[in-house]
Description:
Number of helices: 8
CATH architecture of the largest domain: Alpha-Beta Barrel
Number of strands: 17
Bound molecules: 4'-deoxy-4'-aminopyridoxal-5'-phosphate
Radius of gyration: 19 Å
CATH topology of the largest domain: D-amino Acid Aminotransferase, Chain A, domain 2
CATH class of the largest domain: Alpha Beta
Helix content: 25-40%
CATH superfamily of the largest domain: D-amino Acid Aminotransferase, subunit A, domain 2
Low-confidence stretches: none
Structural class: alpha+beta
Order of helices and strands: EEHEEEHHEEHEHEEEEHEHEEEHE
Amino acid sequence: MADRDGVIWYNGELVPWRDAQTHVLTHTLHYGMGVFEGVRAYETDRGAAIFRLPEHTERLFNSAHILGMKIPYDRDTLNQAQRLAVRENKLASAYIRPMAFYGSEGMGLRADNLQVHVIVAAWHWGSYLGEDNMNRGIRVRVSSFTRHHVNVTMCRAKANGNYMNSMMALQEALRDGYDEAILLDAQGYVMEGSGENIFLVRDGQLHTPDLTSALDGITRKTVIALAEDMGLKVHEKRITRDEVYIADEAFFTGTAAEVTPIREVDGRVIGNGGRGPITEKLQSHYFDVVHGRDPGHRQWLDLV
Ligand code: PMP
């Protein structure tokens, strides 16, 4: 990733990609206390547009607030930084990664002498869980790793350190030949994927876990709004593992994962064993919206 042409927005300046370096004593590298976002820009007929930019920036500030980090820029500056990162790298579509982290000004856990640094990088990133899987659906296992307890890590924050749990779950799933993991919460209820929220379809209605230890996903919110547009009822509730097994359809949502169908969980075929009809409708509606083909939701697009 480091050896590329292009620029990265780094503390208010656009610096050459290869020069966007930080010291090995960077505090966040040692303890994982940092916050970040994952944002996408899509090609539209009016040029590249960032999807739900203000909502992502707001979540970044909320994450920092939860961790007690003070981001030394305002929201407008970081919105502009994200537009610049796409524009200056001449990207027609992009994955955008803003991050705020503590620097190398000191090392103790007290963290009272540290500066918060901010970067925004952008690059081209295709389908996160594979292009073919967007039609075919993915195979998933329930992880042996439990999702964060709400009073251990702060689950409303998209915080760097939270992702150790995600990576262990994902690596376990991949090692066992699956594409992704479903994590259960500390009480044993279905919570989310390693980097996605989860939805089930049952009798023509959507079910998704209520937000306790799951990230408040922006794609989740989008899909709930699109489902309501389509007249589908959405229930936010506790979901058990066996409810997933007998769902008519299941899918993951996320900025990176977009709307990815799930075709199998723990060796049980879900529904028709492929992308279900409601998943397909929501997925295609989602792609119409992010690409600006749906006049109803243009307010979610920020031209770069
Ligand atoms: N849960 C986790 C743990 C995630 O990392 C993500 C990706 N940000 C999501 C859910 C989905 O969130 P969003 O739709 O905002 O990308």
